[in-house]
Amino acid sequence: MATYKESIGTAVTNVAGDPPAPVTGQVWYNSSTGNFRLRKESLGGSWATGNTVNDTRSYLAGAGTQTAAVMMGGRYGATGATETYNGTNWTEVNDMNTDRFYLSGTGTQTAAISSGGLTPGFSVQNVAETWNGTNWTEVNDLNTARNGLGGSGTQTAALSFGGNTYPSSNIVSVTELWNGSNWTEVNDMNTARDKIGSSGTQTAALAYGGTTGPPSSGLTESWNGTNWTEVNDLSNARKNFGSFGTTNTIAIAAGGELVPTRTNLTEVYNGTNWITGANMNVSKAYQAGAGGSTAGVVAFGAVPGGLTNTSEEWNSPAPVTQTLTTS
Questions:
Q1: Which member of 31, 40, 223, 286 has the lowest number of beta carbons within 10 Å of its beta carbon?
Q2: pLDDT in tens, 19-29
Q3: Which residues contact residue 168 at a Cβ distance below 8 angstroms, ignoring those fewer than 6 apart?
């Protein structure tokens, strides 16, 4: 399990007041008031329409932030295509080496990793590739080939989990850890799922929604670096939605499939419960997301009747500082 300092980057400190620039999740002791204080995310937010993408497609993956995102792979279009987003416009860049859809992606716009997926011929893949901001490079494969999997972390410290070993249609709970060189199988998820939402880091990840078979699921599991623990479910069971978030205590689930319909519903996870957020402007599924809990972007995907080239930006109020109480 990751320690507080490993997760936040600082120890709990004694300050005569408040630190000048606390990071989200930071706790300190304010010796002037005699209280512990916490910097936390605000859970409100709204969607704004962004500029359209270049290669309309679906079933793809994303990484990065709202103002520096990268989207990769996809189906019903340029399957190996990669596009970057600078907060205003989408730009086509170099393609992946292996065309894939239903893949996982995580990391930053200039240092990402993709894993798994299906080729256009529906061959399930264990391929992994890293992105350096210019080119994709094939690296060591996953141990278990699968598609519809989730991913979290960075290019050198990533996690992949869940998925489907199509064409056997075997939904799995497999979890693998990437150390920058190799994938290692670690403890499985409690419930096998694919087409799931994912966010967080290698040591603090969240897996939510998806499907355990024909029905959609609202199941949510939190990863602490060693084990998965079931936490409170999504309010609306769904699959194939956009997801993003930087930890296992704050995450966004946007759109997706509430079988048999596509939805614009948004839910925000606050570390305990899923709370209903503002609806997206467009109901769609099979889209990719990138960003943190206060600012993200969801793009591409499928709407009722066909594909869409739309993108939307999620914005939350700035983090707030609160006093912690004891009892």
A1: 31
A2: 877 766 788 88
A3: none
